[in-house]
Amino acid sequence: MFHYHLLMLLLLSIGGQALAQSQEGPLAHFACNEGQGSVVADSSPNKLDGKVGTDWATSPSGKALSFDGKPTGVVTLRLPFEKRLGKDSWTFSAWLNPTQFTIDDPQNQRRVFASGIYPEAYLGVDLLSEGQLSYYFCYKKQTGELVSASGTAATSLVLGQWAHVAVVCDRQKGEVDFYLNGHSQGATSLPAGFAGDFSKDGEITLGNGWHNYWGLMDEVNLYRRALSRTEIKAEFLRLNETFGVKESPEAIATEKREVLMQALAKTQGLWAAGDFAAVRAACAELAGSTDAPASLRSYAHLRSAQSYMAQGKPELAKAEYAKIAATAAYPEVHRAEARDCLAQLSRVAKGLPARDPLASRTTICPVTNFAAEVFVSPDGNDANPGTKASPVATLSRARDIVRAQRAKGL
Fold first, then answer.
1. CA–CA separation, 334 vs 97, rounded Å?
2. Are strands 175-180 and 28-30 parallel, antiparallel or unpaired?
3. E strands along 201-283, which residues?
4. What is the pLDDT of residues 225-263, one digit of tens each?
5. Cα separation, 385 vs 373, whole angstroms
6. What angle in degrees, to the nearest 10, is found between the helix axes of 276-287 and 294-310?
7. Element (H, E) at 333
8. Residues 221-230 as b or e (16 or more Cβ within 10 Å = b)
9. Cβ neighbours of residue 167 closer than 8 Å, sequence gap 6 or more
10. What is the phi/psi pair of residue 163, to 5°?
11. Could you tell me the pTM of the whole model?
C-alpha cells in the first residue's frame, strides 16, 4: 500500500510538472521551414501540426508561409479540449511581411489569426487598411446578449517589410497589449466582467476564410499564457538580425519611457504598503537613469525626499531637497518646489507655521494723492460744488460731478 501511494504521488508530481512546463512553453511553434507540402510542423512537445492550404515562399530564416488573400488559403490546426484557450490568458506572435492591407469591403481589414465560432465565442487579430494591428473578441452570454471587445495599435506595419508582431491577452489583468518589433504599443482594457469561454471550438487559423491575410508569415508562436514584456522582447531579438529590422529612435525612446513610467508607478504600491526604503531605492534608480528625461529624474528625486517626510525624518528630507534645488539639470519648476519645501521645513523648525500667511498675499499700497476730490456730507447740499468747505449731500450728485470732470479730460 505504501509503494502504491508513493507511486501515485510521484505520478501526480510528474504530471503537474509536465502541465506547468507545457503552459510555460509555447502551445504551438511553427518554424515554417518545410517549404513545401500540406503540413507545417509544430516543434513544441504538443505536436499540434497545422494543415496548410496556402503556398510557401523563401524568407530570411529559410522558408515562410505565403498567403494570397483568398479565402481558401489558410493554415488550420485543431486543439484538443484540454489545450483550448478557454478563459486562460494567451499570446500570439509571428514575423509578418504584408503584401496588401486593404480589401474592397466596408470592413477594410485583413485577418491574420482567429479562433472559435462567431458569434458564440470568437477571437480575431487583424491588420487594418493603414497597417495597424487590431483585435476583436466576442461571446454570447446564456441570456443571448453579445459581449464584444476591440482595440487598435497606434503604430503601423509597412508593406513589403518584415516585422515581429505579438498580441498578448492577459485575462487576469483584463488587458490586451500589442507589440511591434519588441515594443509595446500600449494596453487596452477588456470590458469589466469580460468572461468569454473560448473552449467551445478548438480550431485555430493562421489567415482566415473572411478577409484573408495577404503576405508572408514566419516563426509563429501561440502560448496559453500572457508573455511578459521581457519575453516578447527576447522573441524579437532572437531573430532580429536575421530579418533585418532597424528599430527607429522614436520607438526605442517610447519603449524606454514606458518602462520608466511603469517603474515609477510601482512606487505607489510600495508607498501604500509603507515600504519607504523600497520607494527610495526605486526612485534612486530612476533618478540615476541616463535614459530618463530630466523631468522624470527630478520627479523621482522629489518623491524620495517626500518619503522621508512621510516617515517623520525632516532632516533627511532637507538634505534631499537641497540636492534637488542645486541640480542645474533639473527643471526649474521642481527646483523651485524643493526650495519652497526647504523654506517650509526651516519655518517649522522655528516653531512657525509651514507657510507664511502673508507671503502669498498681494500688498495694496495706500493711495495718498488724487487728481480731484469730491466731498459728501449729510449736512451738504447738492447745489454745492462738492469741495471740503461746500460738500454735496448725496452720492449720486458726487457721481455726476466726477463724470463731468472726466468728460473734461481729468
1. 46
2. unpaired
3. 203-206, 214-223
4. 999 999 999 999 999 999 999 877 766 776 777 778 778
5. 11
6. 160
7. helix 332-349
8. bbbbbbbebe
9. 91, 92, 93, 113, 125, 133, 135, 176, 177, 178, 179
10. -150, 145
11. 0.65
What nine digits make up the cell of 2? 505504501
Any idea of the CA torsion for 293, 294, 298, 303, to the nearest 10 degrees? 0
Three-state SS at 124: strand
Integer Cα distance of 146 and 336 in angstroms: 54
Using only C-alpha atoms, the chain has a radius of gyration, in whole angstroms, of 35
Q: Are 368 and 356 in contact (CB under 8 A)?
A: no
Place of cell 494596453: 187
Q: Which three cell numbers stand for residue 107?
A: 470592413
Residue 340 CA: distances (Å) to CA of 271, 318, 337, 344: 23, 11, 5, 6
**CA distance linking residue 337 with residue 230, whole number of Å:** 36
Containing 193, the helix (H) or strand (E) segment is: none
Contact assessment for residue 74 and residue 54, using Cβ atoms and an 8 Å cutoff: yes
Of residues 68, 258, 86, the one with CA closest to residue 155:
258
Contacts of 130 (CB under 8 A, 6+ apart): 101, 156
Question: What is the three-class DSSP state of 212?
Answer: strand
Instruction: Enumerate the β-bridge partners of residue 67.
Output: 215
* pLDDT at 261 (0 to 100): 78
Chain segment 285-308, per-residue pLDDT in tens? 889 888 788 998 999 999 999 999
Looking at residue 339, its amino acid is R
- Over range 304-333, report the average pLDDT: 95
Q: Which residue has the cell 515562410?
A: 64
Query: Which residue type sits at 175?
Result: E
Does the bond joining 191 to the residue before it have cis omega, within 30 degrees of 0?
Answer: no
Sign, CA torsion 255/257/258/263: positive
Q: How many CB atoms lie within 10 A of CB 193?
A: 7
Helix axes 314-326, 332-349, angle to 10 degrees: 150
Cell of 259: 518602462
Work out the percent of the chain whose per-residue pLDDT is above 70: 93
Q: Which three cell numbers stand for residue 159?
A: 508593406
